[in-house]
Write a structure and sequence with these properties.
Dodecin subunit-like, homododecamer, three-stranded antiparallel sheet, alpha+beta
């Protein structure tokens, strides 16, 4: 089936951007079936008292649209 | 919970852009639970007979994804 | 009702971009009620053995948000 | 009639951006007949002695092209 | 003559984008003499009741400026 | 003196974007002497429990560089 | 009078980009009264037999709109 | 083999953009082995005496890099 | 305190981009008090004799403006 | 030697983006002598059955042009 | 020392863009020690009575951050 | 023959951007036959001890693809 939808996701992690990407991807996988691709859009961080406290990622997730029941 | 989704909304008002933003935000709040942020993307207007008849706003709404039932 | 949502769709066809747009639009129509507009974002193709095997289109579909039940 | 032209306008006001938009729109209406839409492109300001003295707006105005005499 | 101007045009057609481009180009030719080039900027569509009712094209038209009478 | 610097500022307000712009401009005026212009770059908002709690503005401030003491 | 229009011009010269800018500006001055500013958008060149034969400039010209007769 | 190169091609046709794309693609296929994809970047046209005389396409062609002899 | 400034930093490391980000962030922390966020803008590398000798990062650092003494 | 060329490369890896960058860089080094720099342009991934199966990187490689034999 | 900051400067000259760049660069050199690079961002001009009265340049200046006293 | 390729070149000169463009163009002409056009993409400079030591230009060169031997 050839039609897919693109969804924009933001995800955060206290450890790093790689972990934020994995969290976001795992979370998206639980809601969106048939994911076929993803793309990193931006990498940011929140800082407090001179230390990074949260790594933030925005990414696009592509998933095939399932057929609605007839 | 650290994963959120970004949704693009367009909204219109006969009064002004501020009203269009409020309408769009209120409408989005009824469908999307857990909105955490928004951003204005563009401000346009439709014109008829030399007068603005509709103020149009495109905005992005960010909302936390809820856990699907296990 | 003046509030609409913008959804990004990718679609593919073995015949051409026009066919990919029609497939994507038809498929979106089955899921999204009240579509009011669309826009072509990009036109790509996959190539194998010197021949185009798949025409790929990314497009944005605009649809009016329906009222959730009270 | 389905063909329109897009014109870029800059407008200024000592009061605010909203007033600059209205001045620009009113001025464009006197020259361009059949305006069907507009879009705000940028909002700037000129500052003197720590106070904003001029609000500047750039906007695009869309107007239907009239038939030239045969 | 080496100086030209760039004008942005939007055009619509009930048939397709190719027809919208031709309509816009033909209409521009009646007003602007000495067109030397054009470029497609965007392709959109208006949709009603699940069917595309209007194909919309934005394009830039380049035309040589004629000498004003001395 | 013809040389100026461009500084990017973000500002927040619980009331609205207009207030956020004024706060940011007033705050910038206390640090940067000789401001000559500004430009709004983006307008966002933070949302909690379905209500906007903070209006966020990013803007560029232009100020003339003063001569360093000889 | 605070309302101005922005026009995009392309100009060519066999000598160099500076000359192309001057030609385009001089030509625009003969058609558009009350020019208040300009901006260089792109610098290209046409090449034949390994030599640049034409320097091409695209620029935006800003001019104050004159009042139409009452 | 997982490494590919992206090459930008411009192509022209007296018939239409579709023909220009096919000409450019066929020409690229004769020089670049192992093409795996392409993308349309822009569609322009050259105009003379009120008629389009040349359809111009810019596109990106992706091709797998072959191993150089050891 | 609601007003912050955005500063663009470039940083380099012989080890990797992650190390360059940490060096740039640590260096910025020594000069700019009250950093609240950062964003990666670009990742480049310098290469010599077929090996990466320097990883380069451009990033934006956001820091709250301190009150100047009264 | 002061003249260099910029080439766009895409590379894939089953392990991660870092590995994809290294593969692409190593592969480019075998074809292009005198590489002096590179830049990451985009990071994507292909997904199957809920797992990332291929990490995709697009990057630009800069290499000094060698003198052709006289 | 590997950490640098990027500052945006605007400069003006009655003579030409080249002179505006030199003025801006000279002025920046008096305030910012350890400049390592610059980049031209835009070239504009102010026009009065059909003649260019001021050439305006926006440029980015890169300078190494000095160590603050321990 | 209507198919051309676009190549990105960077060039440097100790004298100025104009000289860097000429060097890059002359160098490209020795490798690429049948150049038909070029475009300036960016103008940068490297600075040492408060003086510009190297003017850097990035430009795109367009050249017609020659027929490979049958």
């Amino acid at each position: 089936m050839a039609v897919a939808s693109v969804s924009t996701i933001t995800s955060a992690s206290p450890i790093g951007w790689q972990d934020a990407i994995e969290r976001g991807f795992e979370r998206a996988s639980r809601t969106l079936r048939n994911i076929t691709g993803m793309q990193v859009v931006s990498e940011k961080a929140r800082v407090e008292d001179g230390r990074i406290t949260e790594y933030l990622v925005t990414m696009q997730v592509i998933f095939v649209l399932e057929e609605p029941p007839a």
